[in-house]
Amino acid sequence: MTINRRALRLATVVAAGALALAACSSSGSSTSSSASASGSGFNAAITSVVNPSDKTGGTLNFGASGDCDSWDPANTYYGWCWDMQRLLHRNLMAYKSVPGAAGTSVIPDLAQAAGTHNADFTEWTYKLQDGVKWQDGTPITSADVKYGIERLFATDVFATGAGSYYTCILSTCDADGAPAYKGPYADPTGDLPSVTTPDAQTVTFKLNKGIPAFDYYMALTTSAPILKAKDTRAKYTTQPFSSGPFQVSDYQQGKSLTFVRNPNWSQATDKVRAVKADGVKLTIFANSDDLDQRLKNGTLDLVADGGVQQAFQTQIFTNPDLKANADNPSTGYTRYLAVFQTVAPLTNLDCRKAIFYAINKVSLQLARGGKSQGPIAASMAPASQPGFETPEQYNPYPNGAALMGDANKARELLTSCGQPNGFDINVAYSNSTPKGAAGFAAIQQALSKVGINAKPLPHPQAGYYSTFIGQPKNVLDKKMGLALAGWAADFPSVNGFWDSIVNGENIKPTGTSNYASLNDPNINKWINEAATTSDPDKLAQLGKDINHAVMDSATYLPYLWDAGLYYRNPRLTNAYLNQGLSMYYDYVNLGVSDGK
Amino acid sequence: MSVPIEVMPEPPVSKVSEEVAKQGIKGRSLGQIAWSRLRRDKVAMLSLAFIIALLVVAIIAPLIVRIFGVDQNEFNIDLLDPDTGVPIGPWSGASRDHLLGVEPNNGRDVFARIVFGARVSLVIAILATVLSVVIGVAAGIAAGYFGGSVDTVISRIMDVMLAFPVLLFSIAILVIFSGVESFLGLSDVTLRVSLMIFIIGFFGWAYIGRVIRGQVLSLREKEFIDASKSLGAGPGRILNKELLPNLVAPILVYATLTIPTNILTEAALSFLGVGVQEPIPSWGKMLATAQSIYGIDPFYMFVPGIAIFITVLAFNLFGDGLRDALDPKSMR
Asked: Does the interface ipTM go beyond 0.85?
């Protein structure tokens, strides 16, 4: 899903070992070297639960630098928002609430057990538990599960979520990727025939291809059951109806969100959430440094949407007391530049390749805050992906010995693409934090050395992905050449990482995460194959093939494999980073030690 | 016996009065009087010296930068801590090569960027002031001299302009135009700078307009205006020959005092991220970057902060001194 500055999502399948390696030794970040010198708590939440406690009561105070893209499960795609949704909407399955690699496996949530399936994984059945209720006491039924899935097909209303995982496996899609079923609002029959509900507690999914990982699909926030009577469509995000331990008592869009306990949620039915707090307050701060200061002085418990800014970061690394409360994990995000091949002169492959060679990855890393932000990336696939190759093993565009740009090679390519004197290019970036503008300055400086004149196209974080760079028409209108972006796997698998960003079938005019509109039939084929394969070796090979093909197309220019620096208030109990939840703290399971 | 009438000797006459008698009395002009009074004001002269020095620096910025061997756009990544992006060493990593240190995250030389930032600040502030003065003086004279409905309309417009939320509106306009490639034949940097000059200048004319209107109102009742009128002078002649010369003093003073306000407005807009775009340096933008890092690297905040402070102070002090020098009723 899309990165929200420091949002994270870590995906581990076979690469648990590589993951531990990445987390501990992101090229020189202080994790391994100073673990003994600094506070004993540094990085503790990556592998263990910090301050385990049964104490209940108190209100959690979260801060964030922007509101969620949506509080509607069908429409939200930020990693931290998916984590927050564990407070509100329950799913059939959920990520296990433990730290470490075990956190990427899924366990039943509303369901009594994991899905039962037929031999070729095309039919899956789940049975709901008894006694699960909505916030007004209405029982949660299989009809709600079905309705939640049906809503995902209303892509004109819900364009920015992860619905595309479900639409083409539950309905026949045409050549453009549009499903035959048009969603509960627009479809003449209103009914999705591939999902059946033989009784109030049973739901069966008939998929048109085998998906061994379907339990994961049922763990994504996107598939959450929705009560039809409370579905206010596009307005649902302002008044979500809860099936989880908390419900919304007050929501000021863009400012704050207050959660109180849902009296109709029963702990007995929930093995995923061991809720301690009485309430949660999320406040949005326009100024990220203000946010950090409040975190430092204890007014806030954590930054919900990710890591801390540079000032606080440096304080953390130099102050052992602060460092004891911080965690510096690899987040599974790749930071990259989308290179828009739909806009001239980037329609020419060599012109695009010139940029790949000219770019200075070290200055891009520094623009984000140095090595503590993660190691430099040579290809799109991060360490958690099957088939991952280190930069030493695979670097298709070696841009100089120090990765600071190979201007000569870039100029050669410019000449061969017919632009020997360079050209003008618009670079889109999110200006909600200083890091966006700093990244732009680095790009501009590197490209100016070969005559490419980069011009800024800033945009606030809200809507940056959904309406700014994610709309193919807007890209053409604004003549975008490059865009700064970040991405992590939606769930731990090959197609969980690649499907949304490079599958040609996912390019929709209403909005797409395949920003550069890459449409390579081989890549599309491999991704679809990966969705139905469970053989780890085959998956690793597919992962590698896709990674190579994407890099060959010169449409996505990776520069960093993200590491986050998170800070937790010492009063928090049961704090740990959950790998299934994009390496955020597991919000719903947090408590406070002082009962306030 | 009769006493001979002797011719009395001439009384001694001083050389000076001899000269004066030859040339006739020549009075000093307002300008000369003002200049001599200004010369005696040490604070004002110091400020003037600083302003002139700053203007020179801004004009020959590329030469200065070349003499010192620095570049305002070049990244010096090796001077930054690779783990955090912060400059290595105290005083923002100052050294003989980089007298005021380097910027965080990209290592650009601070001294060079301050020098070029002076250009941006002065160009925008001065041209915006010129715009304000031109519009303000025209409006003020029209309102003050013609009176009646002309005065009412212009005064109400001035009231609206003064009440306008300038900063908010400027931010909105600059954000809208950030995606626009070219407008009215201008593009990129020129467009951006022109927009800022226009916005700052256009929203600042009401202040000068009011002052000028007040001056004109008091002047037009004076006898020499009546005298001109009775001799058949038309409004044009009166405006040019009678009013304007008497308005030069307030215009000059308020123009000089508007410049620092405009410098601060430009810094504020750049601070908020809607001013000049990368890679053009601006003192306000440097302050914005500095705020996230001042705990570790306070020097990077001091330098542009002090630059803005001293510049604004110099213009204000010079403006005050000028006002005192031009005001015939002041004690000096």
From this structure: no
